[in-house]
Amino acid sequence: MYFHPLHSPDSSLIGYLLADLDEQEAVVIDPPPRQTELILALLTERSLRLCHVLRTHVHRVDAADCSALCDCTSAQLVVGEAAALPQGCSREAVRVAHGTRLVFGNEVVRVLSTPGHTPGCLSYLWRDRLFCGDAFDVGSCCAGDGEADPGALFDTLTRRLFTLPEQTLVFPAHPIKGRHVATLGELRARYAPRLQQSRDGFITDMMQRRPRATTPRIAAPAAGS
Fold first, then answer.
1. Model pTM?
2. In a domain, 220, yes or no
3. Of 112, 143, 144, 178, whose Cβ has the fewest other Cβ atoms within 10 Å?
4. Counting Cβ atoms within 10 Å, is residue 220 exposed (0-12), middle (13-18) or buried (19+)?
């Protein structure tokens, strides 16, 4: 197997390249903006064929070209069923639902529907690793982003993500408290005070954050932001 984080040089965004080296097939999750040439170089270096470009979410107003890699490689663009693609996206996306399994080589990525940050958010489970986009961004997603749904986010965290094994390694689209990876058990302990309140209490808490937001959460143009 091959695993390569992709850090944007001018933002906090993180994407991920996964590959089966034996079968020479790969997928990329949330490729950061202006990283197309780097990703193509990494693919060429190991003679890899890119099968899928997986997006955890797409904002309604998104300056990123979410299809550049697909145009260069003929990979399929994969988004959630409720995702709204930005204007100008040149690729028709494959829309996937919870439970879908995406295959590259002998590897399998399992799709999890994890709405909350946006209605169409997905997470991807590969081996012991969870790629969750902004699913754990409870400090700002409902405060600054009109697409967010705090009730759906509460359900996603309590009924879906925190039901996975505690040893699951979580890789977000942005660092969480400065960290690029954490175990699900660590995150469960960290978010316990917020999630131990009722669902209505969580919604109220998140809604009260909105007046303090002055700019959209998507200020940085990015794929997977």
1. 0.87
2. no
3. 178
4. middle
pLDDT tens by residue, 195-205? 988 999 998 88
Domain extent for 61: 2-212
The stretches of the chain forming alpha helices (DSSP H) are 36-45, 68-73, 141-144, 150-155, 184-195, 199-207
Any domain includes 90 = yes
In-domain check, residue 188: yes
The token pair that represents 19 in the structure block: 């590959």
CATH number of 171's domain: 3.60.15.10
Cα distance between residue 108 and residue 91, in whole Å: 23
Helix/strand/coil for 147: coil
Is residue 186 within 8 A of residue 177, CB to CB? The reply is no
Beta strands 25-29 and 14-20, pairing class: antiparallel
Buried b / exposed e over 127-162, threshold 16 CB at 10 Å, is eebbbbbbbbbbebbbbbbebbbbebbbbbbbebbb
The predicted-structure confidence for 125-182, as pLDDT tens digits, reads as follows 999 999 999 998 765 444 345 788 899 999 999 999 999 999 999 999 888 878 899 9
87, with CB counted inside 10 A (0-12, 13-18, 19+), is exposed
Percent over 90 (pLDDT), the chain: 55
> Would you say residue 98 lies in a domain?
yes
- Residue 119's alpha-carbon distances to 45, 122, 132, 178, 193, in angstroms, are 37, 9, 14, 26, 25
Q: What digits encode the pLDDT tens for the residues 39-64?
A: 999 999 999 999 999 999 887 666 55
Considering its fold, how many domains does the chain have in total? 1
